[in-house]
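> example.struct
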């Protein structure tokens, strides 16, 4: 019986989560992917003399296509 409620409530929870998302996300194009978020976070931790290097890495990431290639670059 409890499993029935999980299957009943799960689609409703997903629907609410999708409804509460920012609708502009779909109009402005795809949101930043995980590699960009991770690299931006790491660049924010760099010392000021290394900031230029971090911006260069973000530029390199911007030129890569494909989810796995982008993930590999940010994970090195």
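> example.seq
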């Amino acid at each position: 019986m409890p499993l029935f409620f999980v299957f009943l409530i799960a689609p409703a929870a997903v629907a609410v989560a999708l409804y509460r998302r920012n609708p502009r996300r779909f109009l402005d194009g795809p949101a930043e992917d995980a590699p960009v978020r991770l690299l931006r976070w790491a660049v924010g931790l760099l010392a000021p003399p290394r900031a230029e290097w971090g911006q260069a890495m973000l530029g390199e990431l911007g030129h890569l296509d494909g989810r796995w290639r982008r993930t590999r670059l940010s994970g090195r």
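> remarks
DSSP finds five helices and no strands in the chain.
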